[in-house]
Design brief:
- The protein folds into 2 domains: 76 residues; 91 residues, Alpha-Beta Plaits (2-Layer Sandwich).
- Strands 1, 2, 3, 4 and 5 form a 5-stranded antiparallel sheet that branches.
- By secondary structure, it is of the alpha+beta class.
- The longest helix is centred in the first third of the chain and has 72 residues.
- 56% of the residues lie in helices and 22% in strands.
Length: 176
Amino acid sequence: MKITSRVGLIIIVVVVVAALVGLYTAVYRPQVADRADLTDRLDRAEVLRSQLAGTKSDLEGQLAQAQSSLNSTQTKFPAAIESIEYGEYIFELVEKCNLQLASLSFPKPAARTVGSVTYSVVSLSLPVTGSLENIFKFIDMIKTDPHFTSTQVNSVNLAVGGGSATIAVDIYGYAR
């Protein structure tokens, strides 16, 4: 059987059309789908980028505010606990409150970690005698005096008959 030129031309056209359909199906159509997916992902990334830019500026503002708060809080803590200064001031408060201080000795500061911050802490025992009113006045002065912003009153042991107390305090220092 001999193939005529017309049949040969039809076969060639059918083969070319089939090759083009196969090429379209195998190559172009997946690329169109990938392009649509990439365009969608790019649009979502652009939206996310604009949101993150706003979040970044908010976080930078919060960081600046937190740093400012940290700096102002750190200034409330003495860099070093100078026993002479605190000792003199404790004696002044005792005198202002009409109390007598039996003894005062400053141990070496010890390191104490609270959270992730390490403080230098001096623990004092203040045995005082005087009226209960004056003892409470003295405790209040330690709690509210600007010299003692980094001081914590741990306990107060009052004598049964009144007139004397032992006050345990911790003075915190923070080296900057």
